[in-house]
Amino acid sequence: MARTLTVGIAGLGAIGLHLARALDAGVDGLKLVAVAARDHAKAQANLAGFRNRPAIVDIAGLAEADIVVEAAPAAIFEEVAKAAIARGRIFVPSSCGALLPRMHLVEEARKTGARIIVPTGALLGLDAVRAAAEGEVASVTIETRKPPRGLVGAPYLEQHGIDVLAVKDEKTLVFKGNAYDAAQGFPANVNVAAALALAGIGPQRTMIEIWADPHVTRNTHTIRVEAAAARLTMTIENVPSEENPRTGKITPLSILACLRGLTSTLKVGS
Ligand SMILES: NC(=O)C1=CN([C@@H]2O[C@H](COP(=O)(O)OP(=O)(O)OC[C@H]3O[C@@H](n4cnc5c(N)ncnc54)[C@H](O)[C@@H]3O)[C@@H](O)[C@H]2O)C=CC1
Ligand SMILES: O=C([O-])CC(=O)C(=O)O
Predict the structure, then answer these.
(1) Can you give the pLDDT at residue 49?
(2) Is the minimum distance from the CB of 254 to ligand 1 under 6 angstroms?
(3) In this structure, are residues 52 and 25 in contact, taking their beta carbons and an 8 Å threshold?
(4) Among 31, 94, 111, 219, which residue has the least CB neighbours within 10 Å?
């Protein structure tokens, strides 16, 4: 029988708390042992009803676990990543946009034996994109449409004086460019574009449009891939989570599915 892998989670917000609850409910081959939180008192309260309460530790302490899931603001991505990678752990980032300017971490991981596993997150179809990218790919695009409040606070909007909450009637294109620049300008909004770029043809060639759309209630992402082997067109419409409207509810579920795939005997999808 495969051994149980222990899990540590950085951040107990829209992603981390849901993932923690799901792991505590019981998943074969996985055991939640540690969490890191900004607000310890709140974390204690959130963990109060858990069957097996994980330890509340600092970021370095998380790396005692076999798997370190980062579910925190992008600002602390590097700290979490470095601690996990230095100890040779399996690092599963949510804030994968923050990985794009830090690809040296992949080289570090190669040296320590760590693995970096980027989950599909709020997106879909990365199995097909990866397959297509084993062959010739002409183009990869993603169009993201979010209710305006799902984009509030993005540095790009602030730098360009764009008030998305003033978008009331017509959907408005607020960004068009490559995935690398989108990840810098919208670190809490389009990690999906970073995951797509890493799965396919890289952050410079992966193009993204970001729309503030007052007519959608869901965070909607459409991927188009033109490849020699196939043409892909896929859309996901995510229900925003109550805790954080920028984050689709499917994200912690996707990470849970990803973690299950690390231990399950039967694994479906590449
Ligand atoms: N890959 C993907 O498809 C997606 C990625 N994301 C990204 O995942 C990350 C987490 O998203 P959410 O859970 O929605 O965010 P959130 O804001 O709901 O939760 C983040 C949590 O981290 C905690 N935190 C802040 N500083 C901390 C520290 N120093 N140590 C430990 N915890 C700390 C906060 O208190 C909060 O509870 C964000 O960067 C977000 O942009 C979000 C949605 C989809
Ligand atoms: O949940 C979503 O729709 C996507 C998201 O926030 C992200 O990629 O960062």
Answers:
(1) 95
(2) no
(3) no
(4) 111
Ligand 2 lined by 206 (C-beta under 6 Å): no
Give the C-alpha distances (Å, rounded to integers) separating 12 from 43, 44, 129, 231, 263. 7, 11, 30, 38, 23
* Residue type (1 letter), 19: L
Question: Which numbered atom of ligand 2 lies nearest the CA of 94?
Answer: 9
Write 78-85 long-range contacts (CB < 8 A, 24+): 78/102, 78/105, 80/10, 80/36, 81/105, 81/116, 82/108, 83/59, 84/114, 85/109, 85/112, 85/114, 85/116
Assess whether pLDDT exceeds 70 at residue 3: yes
User: Known binder of ligand: residue 191?
Assistant: yes
In ligand 2, the atom with minimum distance to the C-alpha of 238 is 3
Closest listed ligand to the CA of 122: 1
Confirm or deny that 178 is annotated as ligand binding.
no
Q: What's the confidence (pLDDT) of residue 43?
A: 98
Q: Which ligand is nearest to the CA of 193?
A: 2
What number is the average pLDDT over the span 117-130? 98
Mean pLDDT, the chain, whole residue set: 97
Q: What is the ipTM of this complex?
A: 0.98
Mean pLDDT across 204-218: 97
| 42 within ligand 1 shell (Cβ under 6 A) | no
Residue from 48, 16, 46 nearest 32 by CA = 16
What per-residue confidence (pLDDT) applies to 1? Answer: 61
